[in-house]
Design a protein that fits this description.
The chain is an alpha/beta fold. It is about 35% helix and about 15% strand. It has two domains: about 150 residues, Ribosomal protein L4/L1 (Ribosomal Protein L4, Chain: A); about 50 residues, no CATH class. Strands 2-1-3-6-4-5 form a six-stranded mixed sheet. Part of the 50S ribosomal subunit.
Length: about 210
Amino acid sequence: MKVAVLDIKGKETGRKVDLSDDVFAIEPNNHAVYLDVKQYLAHQRQGTHKSKERAEIVGSTRKIKKQKGTGTARAGSIKSPIFKGGGRIFGPRPKDYTQKLNKNLKRLARKSALSIKSKEKAIVVLEDFSFDTPKTKDFVQVLKSLGLENKKSLFVLGDSNNSVYLASRNLRGSEVVTSSELSTYKILNANSVVLLEGSLEGLQSNLNK
């Protein structure tokens, strides 16, 4: 699949790159995509939720009233969950939410996500660029030139580029990652995926293993 390469002004450079059909034109596997996105979202959870139960509450241990003759239910401790300030019944406890998926399934999910974006014509190939100084306004100008100013965009770099990353990090709708950091969730969450030329070889070779 041939795709034109654009410059940072949004104009065609006259060059075209060949995107592998094995990565950008497969029949999407929706279940693989579901499992990978589910794992990504699960890993965002810290799992540090905790509430104190009866045994962890600090309070008096004396019996607060006599056992019989009060006409009410017996009560042995002020730390009982039925009293204000008492422990929580079956409260949340720390939990590990990590899930395991094999590498082949994750590769299939990423290829499926890229193929979905390719069918939607939401993939742009951009020539490699950098900034002399990382300024947000320069990155915004690139977004304007590509027609992505008010859209969610994902820029995929071949190698880490500090100037591009720093120029983009103040923008909520845009994210810059390297090809090794690419995930199914990030691909699907973006309206447009911008692939820099330098990322294509590594991306395609990694997903075709």
